[in-house]
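To: structure desk
From: M.T.
Subject: fold request, one chain
Message: Could you run this one when you get a chance? Sequence is below, nothing fancy, just the single chain.
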Amino acid sequence: VANEGGKHWTVNEVRALIRIWSDKNIQQQLEGTVRNKRIFEQVAARLQKFGIDRDWKQCRTKYKNLKHEYKSVKSAQDSGSTSKSMKFFNELDAILGHCTMEQASKSDHDESERLPEWTEAKSEKDSVG
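Reply: Done. Structure tokens follow.
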């Protein structure tokens, strides 16, 4: 089905959109907001760098459609049905699969923003050497 603005998204375009969407910064911005035009303007600008010409509305529509499709496949799977599937399920599951758990435990979320101590120690060693 053609979305608003016309032409179908190619596999590469969807992959690029998902790659940008998987950015933790973008996810955090999308998590807490409904008025997200500004965020999708950023997404569209980043797609432009990949040579993909989509406006923010097309990005938002595609995002919503992918999210909706993912949720319906996920709930079908949770109820034991394997008949429903979608092309980018695994990629989306990596992004969306943790969201429900993350929102349930907001207290853990604050700690997850800090890097684990071993990564900081490692980077110090790298800069010394």
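Reply (cont.): Helices lie at 11-21, 24-31, 37-49, 56-78, 89-96, 99-104, 106-112, 117-128. Let me know if you need anything else for the meeting.
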